[in-house]
Amino acid sequence: MSRKYGIGGGEIKQYINGICEISEVLPLNMDVYWKALDLIKKFKFAFWDSLIASAAILNDVEIIYSEDFQNNFNIEKSLKILNPFKN
Q1: How many contiguous H segments (helices) and E segments (strands) does the chain have?
Q2: What's the number of CA atoms in the CB half-sphere (13 Å) around residue 7?
Q3: Considering 7, 25, 36, 48, which has the largest number of Cβ atoms within 10 A of its Cβ?
Q4: Which domain holds residue 33?
Q5: Using alpha carbons only, what angle is made at residue 39 by residues 38 and 42, rounded to the nearest 5 degrees?
Q6: Model pTM?
Q7: Is 32 part of any domain?
Q8: CB-based contact 58:75 (threshold 8 Å)
């Protein structure tokens, strides 16, 4: 974020702290990585996108809002990806 948007490290820390105050932050574990590798193989996702999807699936998240995936995409019948910028 700092290079792309010109935001300093202090601002990024404040932003992350704000997210942590209103969200449950779960650690990554090896199950998330193994599932991510399965998703890469099955769907040809990029590594970081597969980590997001994997963590969501393993923590029973039903919807992810992202512009990086195909809109209205379903993964393993348990996770739906919606692009908030599409109708």
Answers
A1: 4, 3
A2: 10
A3: 36
A4: 27-82
A5: 85
A6: 0.78
A7: yes
A8: no
